[in-house]
Amino acid sequence: MKQFKYTGEQRNGTGTTFYFEEKSATLMKLNFVITEWVQNEKLAFKITSGNFVKGYEQFWTIATTPSGSRFTYMEDIKMPYGIFGKFIGLFARFSSKANLKKMLGKLKVLSEA
After folding, report:
1. Which domain holds residue 96?
2. CATH number of the domain to which 65 belongs
3. Structurally, how many domains does the chain consist of?
4. Contact 22, 42 (CB under 8 A)
5. Alpha-carbon distance 103 to 81, whole Å?
6. pLDDT of res. 36
7. How far is 78 from 89, CA to CA, in rounded Å?
8. Residues 17, 31: contact at Cβ < 8 Å?
């Protein structure tokens, strides 16, 4: 992640808006709105505007299990540019997976502290 900032007064809950920059195959500049929020359990957000993507949604959940917690992450990205966009999407997926591994590593350290 290169930059994150809230774009409205609200700082949590459904309806919160934020701006996010991520360096993958290119510098992605995206505006989002939170669509689902359950404190310490669920977070979902979708793009409202941005460059290089047609649609973008992320879903995060944390559930208690007998041995600890289960973290679930889903991402749905729709690329423009037809077949060329699908190729770009495949390339970007590798970058996204690498970033996700870093984020999960940091989350694990924080949760075990």
Report:
1. 3-112
2. 3.30.530.20
3. 1
4. no
5. 29
6. 98
7. 8
8. yes
Sheet containing strand 55-65, edge to edge, reads 3-6, 17-23, 27-38, 42-50, 55-65, 68-78
Burial state string for 74-101 with b = 16 or more CB within 10 A and e = fewer than 16: eeebebeeeeebeebbeebeeebeeeee
Q: Which amino acid makes up residue 8?
A: G
Q: What is the token pair recorded at 21?
A: 């920059």
Task: Answer whether 1's CB lies under 8 Å from 22's CB.
Answer: yes
Of the candidates 32, 34, 37, 44, the one whose C-alpha atom is nearest the C-alpha of residue 1 is: 32
Residue with tokens 């075990």: 112
pTM of the entire predicted model: 0.76
Q: pLDDT tens digit string along 49-76?
A: 998 888 999 999 999 999 988 989 898 8
